[in-house]
Amino acid sequence: MRFVLEPEQQDMADTLRAMFTAADVPAIARSWADGDAESWRKLWRSLADLGVTGVTLPEERGGLGLGPVELALCLQECGYAGLPGPVIESLALLPALLPDLTADAAVRTAVVAPHVPCALDADLADEVYECGPESTRILSGISLRREESFDPARRLFEVGSTWGEEVPGAEFERAFDLAVLGCAAYLLGLGHRMLDLATEHVKQRQQFGRPVGEFQAVKHHLANALLKLEFARPLIRGAALSAGSEHAGRDASAAKLAAGEAAHLAARTALQVHGAIGYTAEHDLHRHLTKTAALRQSWGTPAWHRRRIARSLTADPDTPIGSP
C-alpha cells in the first residue's frame, strides 16, 4: 500500500489549505454559529467551483470522478481548518447515496438513523434527507426544533416532516461507510491542527527564561500525540482503498476509532500545554476542542465501532448497521 500522496493529490491539499487560510475560517465559524450563513456560503460556492462538492461524483454528473482517497484528503483539510456546516453529509454521505445527484453548490444535510439523530444545520440547508438501512427520503414540510450541542458551530435540529419523497436505488451501507471514513479524515485534520497550535504555543511561551517547548516532558507529550495521529493515517488510507469491498465497514470503523482516539489525545495535550487560555471561546483551540468531542461520538460511538470490528473478526458481517 502506498501512503505517500501523488503530486496531484498534494496539490489539491495545498490548494484547499490556502483557500481556507485566505477565507478566515475562524471568523466564518463564529458567524455560522450565530446563524449567519453568508460568508460560509460564499466559501462553499468557491469549493463548488473547484469541484470539491462533487469530488466523488462521475464526470457525466458534473463531478471530478475521483475516489475515496481524494474524498478523505478533502475532508482532512476541512477538519484542519475547522470548517463548520454539514460537510460530511454533503461531500461523503449523500453523493454516494443519491444515484441522480449532480455536482452543485447546494447544501444538504441528513438524519441518519440511529447514529445521527439530529440534522446538522437543517435551518440553513437547501435539502434535508432522512436516511437509514430501510429507506432514504428527501423531506418536505419539515418542522425544526433546536437541540443543545457541545460545539456551538454544530447546530443540531430534531426534524419533523409531514411527508417525504422516496429516493430509489440508494445504497445505504456503502454511503454510511464513506461518511464514517469522512468523519475519520475530518478528525485527523482536527488533531493535526490542534497539535500545530500546541507546538507553536510552546515555542513562544517562556518559563525560566526558556521556551517551554525545550523541556523534555513537553516534547514527550507532543511526540506521543503526533505518533497517535500518524498511526491513524494509514488506517484511513486503508479504509479509503477498501471502500466498496467486503471489509469496507470494518476498515471504516477501525479508521474512525483510531482517528477519534488520536484527535482526543491531541486535544488533551494541546489543552494541557495552553492552560486555561485554551478553554476560552476567543481562542482557535476552543473551536477544535469542542468539534473533536462532538465528532468522536457522532457517526457511531467508539463502543459501537469496537463492537462492529469484533463482529467482523468473528465472522458475523451481516449484522445490520443500526444494530448494537
Shape: globular
In what order do the strands lie side by side in the largest sheet?
1-3-4-5-2
Total number of helices = 10
What is the typical, i.e. mean, pLDDT?
91
Strand fraction? 5-15%
Name the assembly state: single chain
Determine the fraction of residues in helical runs and give it as a percent range.
40-55%
Which spans of ≥5 residues are poorly predicted at pLDDT below 50?
none
Main β-sheet, in a few words?
5 strands, mixed
Written as H for each helix and E for each strand, in order along the chain, the element string is HHHHHEEEEEHEEHHHH
Structural class: alpha+beta
Span from first to last CA? 32 Å
Count the beta strands: 7
Cα-based radius of gyration, to the nearest Å? 19 Å
Please specify the SSE layout and strand pairing.
Layout (H helix, E strand, L loop, with lengths): L6 H17 L1 H9 L4 H13 L17 H14 L5 H11 L10 E5 L6 E2 L6 E5 L4 E12 L8 E11 L5 H33 L1 E2 L2 E2 L4 H26 L6 H27 L9 H14 L4 H12 L11
Parallel strand pairs: 1-3
Antiparallel strand pairs: 2-5, 3-4, 4-5, 6-7
Helix pairs in contact: 1-4, 4-6, 4-7, 5-6, 6-7, 6-8, 6-9, 7-8, 8-9, 8-10
What are the key terms here?
alpha+beta; single chain; 54% helix; 324 residues; two-stranded antiparallel ribbon; globular
In short:
This protein has 324 residues and is α+β, with helices and mostly antiparallel strands.
Question: Would you give an account of this structure?
Answer:
This protein has 324 residues and is an alpha+beta fold. It has helices spanning 7-23, 25-33, 38-50, 68-81, 87-97, 172-204, 216-241, 248-274, 284-297, 302-313, and strands at residues 108-112, 119-120, 127-131, 136-147, 156-166, 206-207, 210-211. The mean pLDDT is 91. The protein starts with 6 loop residues before the first helix and ends in an 11-residue tail after the last helix. The protein has a 5-stranded mixed beta sheet with strand order 1-3-4-5-2. Strands 6-7 form a two-stranded antiparallel sheet. Strand 6 (206-207) and strand 7 form a beta hairpin.
